[in-house]
Design a protein that fits this description.
The chain is an all-alpha fold. The protein is elongated, with a radius of gyration of 34 Å.
């Protein structure tokens, strides 16, 4: 039977070998330059870093075969095959043990085979197997099943401790594959009590030490994961999102609908989707029927578990494994099919038992052999259907365009899917297809009552990339008009999401207006974005730059100050803010920003010029450092000869501070002769400085003096 399982699963996944790297595979594998460092991956195992076991397997993949997708797919399939075989052995031996104490009427080999083949061939598992980076999920599932398998083997073996040690080791490794493994010790204890032990006392006397050792990495993992889920933590953005997070209760109500959808796909896997973009509930009433259904199912599984029914255990494990991602922790992505990979094994086991009991009841007058034949015939039919669907589904992972096309076909309202597909089509020179796709999705959303302005904004951006600025401006205005009408009252979370989408529309429109030389109009759009979402620092920087270009210096100061104070990592914005302060004569405020810019970029001649200019001739005695300015000016002239004229002017300023008026006079007269007759402003400024020097007085900057910059 194992051979049949392996052959069937391999055949179903043959089409996965043509798949490439998609979506998160690129940042985590293709663009990860350190991925092939096996020693570093081994060190991460002892450092309790994030998912070190999966990282080690990926590193070994790269070190052995390089970054070609085929070896990754082969290893992923091998992990899946091991899991399928382990599930077969786990179910088979569990039924054997149950039959020893109280005959169940089930054939261990038959039930184990059905459970394993239905799970192994089910297309709902393809995301965990064919999507390369989701090795996290499949590897965790393999270790999870091995923990339970080692327990049952230890219970049946003459020398049990090697199996128990193997189970502990599997549990530890699983903790390093994915955080969902934290539920494995709980599952192991419940499995022991229902399948292996008749009393809690015997359980803890015989295997209490096993679970105590299993719990230690679970505690360490919880200590590491919980801070990530706290507000304002450094790792929160990757889990809960950068800007907005649903409340735990709304997320919980939403998950009831997601779980029912998972169950539907387990029965009828028609529209499988890589990216759902599932909407979070606005209230409990939105998902009340599904909440009642899930609570009923969970309550039933708990009742049967309490009564010691093995089927109650399997049903409860379905909910337990889903709990970390489908309960009260509001993860940014509400629904993903790979989360159903291991819970699907529970459903397959329940289906296998249910099929056997149903046929036995239906054909009670028939012989056992006849009943088993009918079960196998039904299994073959189901396996063929599931296998063919898996073959077809794997083709969606062959490249980015195929993958995102499949998402848009099943969920035309999915903004991320439309956006990604348009970008990939445009990169392939297929802009006409991208435009047609967006128009088709917009029409579908209008017909079914979904908001269209984000898609209309994507269409406008497509026109921008194609160089059709006038068409893009008109399309952006269509999107703006569409966004101003809101048909329903939303929850605070949903309103936050909508506000961000609308603010992103305003920033994109503002960027285009700025590009076509309309900075005042661009500033209006950036300010509208800030009003909608005042927590995004980058938008203040955009608004500040637009206000500067349109001559509104006071507002530029306000916007840039907010940006640099709110986000210390915005170095370029801080540099530009310092330049603006210097241009406005606010030298004491400008110096710290300019000094920081020069330290970070020694080739930033513009910032360096403004800094030494202040040091040479600032009105304040505390800011003037003419010796430093003179030395820096001479060094910069050697380094940047193309900016010698501006730097020699600073040299003259510094010399005048040091009382070396003759040298300053000579430099200024030379600069006046070199100045173009067309540059009257420069000639006038130099002549004013020359008049000051000829009076044997040092040159001083004024608070509102015009500024010449070496470079922008």
């Amino acid at each position: 039977m194992r051979s049949i399982l392996i052959v069937a699963v391999v055949v179903a996944y043959l089409t996965s070998f043509s798949g490439g790297f998609v979506f998160d595979d690129h940042p985590h594998i293709v663009e990860n330059q350190s991925l092939g460092d096996v020693p570093a991956a081994l060190r991460s195992m002892t450092a309790i870093s994030t998912r070190p076991v999966t990282r080690l397997t990926l590193a070994l993949n790269v070190a052995t075969f390089g970054k070609h997708p085929l070896p990754f797919h082969i290893v992923n399939l091998a992990i899946h095959l091991v899991s399928v075989v382990v599930l077969f052995g786990l179910v088979r031996r569990s039924v054997l043990l149950l039959n020893e104490h109280s005959p169940t009427g089930l054939d261990p080999n038959l039930v184990g085979f059905i459970a394993a083949i239905l799970w192994g061939l089910h297309p709902l598992g393809t995301m965990a197997v064919t999507y390369i980076i989701q090795r996290h999920e499949s590897l965790m599932a393999m270790f999870y099943l091995l923990v339970l398998y080692c327990l049952v083997r230890g219970r049946m073996a003459g020398r049990s401790w090697p199996w128990y040690l193997a189970g502990i080791f599997s549990c530890w490794l699983g903790m390093g594959a994915k955080e969902v493994m934290v539920t494995a010790p709980v599952a192991a204890v419940l499995f022991d009590r229902i399948i292996l032990s008749d009393r809690w006392r015997n359980l803890f006397r015989n295997r209490g030490w096993v679970y105590a050792v299993m719990m230690s990495p679970a505690v360490l993992l919880l200590v590491k994961v919980i801070p990530i889920l706290l507000k304002d933590s450094s790792g929160q953005a990757g889990v809960l999102g950068t800007y907005e997070t649903a409340s735990p209760w709304l997320y919980l109500w939403t998950q009831s609908g997601v779980i029912l959808h998972y169950l539907r796909l387990a029965v009828w896997p028609d529209y499988l989707t890589f990216d759902y973009d599932w909407p979070v509930a606005s209230s409990i009433w939105e998902y009340l029927p599904s909440t009642l259904a899930v609570v009923t199912l969970l309550g039933g599984s708990l009742w049967y578990l309490w009564r010691g029914n093995p089927l109650g255990l399997v049903a409860f494990l379905f909910f337990l494994i889903l709990a970390p991602t489908s309960s009260v922790v509001p993860i940014i992505d509400v629904a993903f099919e790979h989360r159903m990979y291991l819970p699907l094994a529970c459903l397959s086991t329940l289906a296998a038992v249910g099929m056997c009991y149903a046929i036995a009841w239906w054909k009670a007058s028939e012989s056992i052999a006849r009943q088993h034949s009918l079960v196998l015939l039904l299994t073959v039919g189901l396996s063929l259907g599931l296998g063919l669907r898996t073959l077809q589904r794997n083709l969606d992972y062959r490249d980015e365009i195929a993958l995102w096309t499949s998402v848009v076909e099943s969920r035309p309202m999915n903004l991320r899917a439309n956006h990604n597909l348009v970008n990939y089509l445009r990169a392939e020179g297929r802009s006409a297809e991208a435009e047609a796709l967006l128009k088709q999705s917009i029409a579908w959303c209008q017909q079914h009552g979904y908001e269209t302005f984000p898609l209309e904004a994507d269409l406008a951006e497509l026109y921008v990339y194609e160089g059709a600025a006038d068409l893009a401006l008109r399309q952006f205005q269509v999107a703006i008009d569409s966004a101003t009408t809101q048909s329903e009252k939303l929850s605070p979370y949903r309103q936050q999401v909508r506000d961000r989408q609308q603010a992103e529309l305003h920033t994109s429109y503002g960027a285009l207006l700025d590009m076509v030389g309309r900075p005042a109009d661009a500033a209006v759009q950036f300010d509208l974005a800030i009003q909608l979402r005042p927590d995004v620092s980058h938008w203040y920087a955009l608004a500040g730059d637009a206000h500067r270009k349109s001559g509104n210096v006071d507002l530029a100061f306000q916007r840039w100050r907010h940006a640099v104070e709110a986000d210390k990592s915005m170095f370029q914005v801080a540099r530009d803010y310092g330049m603006l302060l210097a241009a406005a004569g606010r030298y004491d405020e400008a110096v710290p920003y300019l000094e920081s810019s020069v330290r970070k970029d020694h080739d930033d001649v513009a910032a360096a010029y403004q800094l030494i200019r202040i040091q040479a001739a600032a009105p304040s005695d505390e800011l003037r450092q003419p010796e430093v300015a003179l030395t820096s000016s001479l060094n910069l002239q050697k380094q940047f000869p193309q900016h010698q004229r501006e730097l020699r002017e600073v040299e003259a300023m510094a010399l005048s501070q040091l009382g070396r008026f003759d040298e300053a006079n000579s430099i200024l007269q030379s600069l006046i002769l070199e100045a173009s007759n067309n540059d009257s402003a420069t000639r006038e400024r130099l002549q004013q400085q020359l008049a000051v020097v000829q009076k044997q007085q040092p040159i001083r900057l004024t608070r509102k003096s015009p500024v010449t910059t070496a470079s922008r």
